[in-house]
Amino acid sequence: GDRAQLIDGKAIAATIRGEIKDEIDRLRSETGGEFNPGLAVVLVGERKDSQTYVRNKKKACDDCGIVSFGTDLPDTATEEEVLEVVKKYNADPKVHGILVQLPLPAHMDEEKILTAISIQKDVDGFHPENIGKLAMRGRKPDFVCCTPKGSVELLERSGVEISGKSAVVVGRSNIVGTPAAMLLQERNATVTVVHSRTKDPERYIREADIVVAACGVAEFVKGEWLKPGCAVIDVGINAVDDATKKRGYRLVGDVHFDSAVKVAGQITPVPGGVGPMTIAMLLQNTLEGAKAARERGE
Amino acid sequence: GDRAQLIDGKAIAATIRGEIKDEIDRLRSETGGEFNPGLAVVLVGERKDSQTYVRNKKKACDDCGIVSFGTDLPDTATEEEVLEVVKKYNADPKVHGILVQLPLPAHMDEEKILTAISIQKDVDGFHPENIGKLAMRGRKPDFVCCTPKGSVELLERSGVEISGKSAVVVGRSNIVGTPAAMLLQERNATVTVVHSRTKDPERYIREADIVVAACGVAEFVKGEWLKPGCAVIDVGINAVDDATKKRGYRLVGDVHFDSAVKVAGQITPVPGGVGPMTIAMLLQNTLEGAKAARERGE
Ligand SMILES: NC(=O)C1=CN([C@@H]2O[C@H](COP(=O)(O)OP(=O)(O)OC[C@H]3O[C@@H](n4cnc5c(N)ncnc54)[C@H](OP(=O)(O)O)[C@@H]3O)[C@@H](O)[C@H]2O)C=CC1
Ligand SMILES: NC(=O)C1=CN([C@@H]2O[C@H](COP(=O)(O)OP(=O)(O)OC[C@H]3O[C@@H](n4cnc5c(N)ncnc54)[C@H](OP(=O)(O)O)[C@@H]3O)[C@@H](O)[C@H]2O)C=CC1
Q1: Mutational pocket test of ligand 1: of A235, A274, A278, A282, the residue with most ligand atoms within 8 Å of the beta carbon
Q2: pLDDT tens, B80-133?
Q3: Which helix (H) or strand (E) holds A54?
Q4: Which of A211, B53, B141, B261 could be bridged to B134 by S-S, CB 3.0 to 4.6 A?
Q5: How far is it, in rounded angstroms, from Cα A256 to Cα A254?
Q6: Contacts of B194 in chain A (CB under 8 A)
Q7: How many contacts (CB atoms, under 8 Å) link A and B?
Q8: Which value does ipTM take for this structure?
Q9: Atom 6, ligand 1: which residue's CA is nearest?
């Protein structure tokens, strides 16, 4: 039978990273070497997964010509010390983006630390003022959260029309579902946000031209729930036990891929869909931050 | 046949204003006269309607024991002068809420002036940081916009269950539709936002347990579109020509009342529904601002 067209996030992310590198090279040479976007990554504690994420982000910066700065603090660091680091980077004109790797140790007030980041360097787009501006008509946030931004970029680069369409976002977290809904609405989709307290989620999903799944529940959205021909963006990354794999598990999304691929018109795979876009958007945000700083004459 | 129960906004607003007065009286006497909530209203220009709104707000403050401050500037005032006034009130410990009456003259940057209001005195709830916090899980805005807050208060005081229900908000403005959707979602409704680019709005409205109409189109939502028994909050205020009236017009909502009242379970009239709630919520926000300032030891 028919199968959905795969949205190749890995290839699209590679294209975007190439575009970013080219633009940085061009601006650097136009300015006689003066244009040097910089990203500062703050890592607190020794979590292995966080260390890997930070390493990957720094490597991605290197690849496209973004200067990366880093401060690693021990688990025992105080909130005050982290705030000092953030303040230092806020004041540093070589730094255009600041990223505090989450989660922070439990004894720290995440909200306080994230809100201390200058909104003009908030490349993660987590600051409430940036979220508020994203929600508002006629306002422009300095930055948009990377994963939802990457999700919408995948739709746009795959030629999926958003304006006038109905969209369902499954999940309403601050960093994925909520900003994804805002971005789709900004592009004139009619958006419904489904969450854990929604009765009968398939009732909404069945009518949607676009489905963004970000609920953190492995294979939650079934193919039978989908409207034939719809576009599916699967943000989920879940490890499920799999004895046939060397590592003992495999990664699946928040969509039941095997059934969904038979109904959807377009679909992202997991892995290789939204995942690679998140870092590409972080690089893009850092470049945008550097360009905005230059326009402000900094 | 059956008719919907009317949600009497006038009566509910009067009850709330009584509660506010009682709480202020109590706190004032508990503090030996030290507790004096203050609202500052900034009016620029000579628009008759704006002057009436400002007069009504000040009168409402008087009635419940809120001290009102006011600065009236001419149409010819500069943006800088308005910003100076805002700054003065930001710094004034007797002022717990600052309201800049909209619209501002065309030569002023509304965004810049509204964003200059301290978020801790932003009783209109228009600051992007307050909107962002309203959108986010686990964050609390200092203030919530008055009209949407009043709309949800009407539902709650009428015993309409919100959690687990489906809601449609018609309209996505910064001051009504968007925050109304956020408030309903916070209370665990599954919310769809319909706007001018939505194809087939009745398709969404037909399925909704709760409809909030805020599109500024007279009698837009028809009774035939409604799910029997649903709750309808009509935010609209539109003047339509009516030769049988002395003034030559009458006020109607964004819902076609005569057909809707036959299908809905509960409905707000226009006038006398949401309208009176807006000022009541402004008073409530000012009281909350004064209580928060007191807790901060100001
Ligand atoms: N590709 C990437 O780079 C990234 C991928 N992710 C992945 O995306 C997914 C979502 O992440 P995140 O937003 O951080 O997750 P959160 O756990 O923060 O949020 C999950 C959301 O889904 C909702 N939800 C939970 N269960 C259900 C259910 N049964 N039905 C409907 N809604 C439900 C929750 O509702 P409620 O609010 O009611 O609790 C909540 O809003 C995860 O799989 C995560 O691994 C996340 C970030 C980056
Ligand atoms: N009771 C009270 O105290 C108050 C009442 N009001 C009343 O509430 C109503 C809304 O006010 P406000 O939010 O400021 O208005 P705006 O004009 O700022 O916003 C109207 C919204 O409705 C949408 N819309 C317009 N036409 C249609 C249509 N045909 N179908 C679906 N959606 C449509 C617009 O969509 P798009 O974004 O695509 O343009 C927009 O989002 C008005 O009637 C106003 O008088 C307002 C404030 C206070």
Answers
A1: A235
A2: 999 999 999 999 999 999 999 999 999 999 999 999 999 999 999 999 999 999
A3: helix A48-64
A4: B141
A5: 7
A6: 190
A7: 100
A8: 0.97
A9: A236
